[in-house]
Amino acid sequence: MKSPKLFVNIFLTLAAIGMAYYLYYIIQQPIIFERSKKVREEALIQRLKDAREAQIAYKDLTGGFAHKWENLIDSIKYADYPQIKIIGNPDDTTQAVIYDTTYIPLKSRVFEDNYVVDSLKYIPYTGGKEIMSINAGEITVNKVNVQVFEIRAPERKLLNGLNKDYIDPDFEYRVGSMSQATYSGNWE
């Protein structure tokens, strides 16, 4: 007959192994979350930077920012941007100056040729299901009207599928502002 001490030792050994695994699991959860968050966050920030560049190019072309993704994306894909080449010295009044205007695709001004402009509006890692909000308008700053835009992506949509205990449900990544004359992102 085996002694009860042996059973107690086996039980305590199994309990220690279980506790060690549980502690390892508890310690690893935030680390795994932070790694995944960092990858997704970097992709989103790059997407917001791209959207900002697209908005600036759109404004250079039209005089205002796009308030709909369709307008912004269509302009980047299909519009041409005037490029003026000056032949001669415009400051020299003794010779003729020629202004030669050529048109280049707006997309080539902003992005590489292989950039997929249609993906600009989607929050990365959502499988094309979640769209960032976009808005544009005009505000008055020091009695001057200023064109502004804002693009937002909620953190909870970016981090969907990860541990919800670590997600701030109210935080949004944002570039631009509808209340201030800035094109900065809130991560900068």
Q: What features would you highlight for this structure?
A:
188 residues; alpha+beta; three-stranded antiparallel β-sheet; two-stranded antiparallel ribbon; 41% helix; 22% strand
Order of the strands making up the biggest sheet: 3-4-5
Beta-strand residue percentage: 15-25%
Main beta sheet: 3 strands, antiparallel
Relative helix content: 40-55%
Q: Which value, in Å, is the CA radius of gyration?
A: 27 Å
Based on CA inertia axes, which overall geometry fits?
elongated
Averaging pLDDT over every residue, what do you get? 94
Distance between the termini: 71 Å
Unreliable stretches, pLDDT < 50, 5 or more residues?
Answer: none
* Estimated structural class: alpha+beta
Total strand count, please?
5
Total of DSSP H or I helical runs spanning 4+ residues: 4
What is the ordering of alpha helices and beta strands? Answer: HHEEHEEHE
Can you offer a commentary on this structure?
- The chain is of the alpha+beta class and 188 residues long.
- It is built from four helices and five strands; from the N terminus they run ααββαββαβ.
- The chain has helices at residues 4-62, 69-78, 106-110, 155-158, and strands at residues 80-87, 98-105, 133-141, 144-154, 172-176.
- The strands form two sheets. A three-stranded antiparallel beta sheet has the order 3-4-5. Strands 1-2 form a two-stranded antiparallel ribbon.
- Strand 3 and strand 4 (144-154) form a beta hairpin.
- Helix 1 packs across helix 2 (69-78).
- The chain is elongated.
- The mean pLDDT is 94.
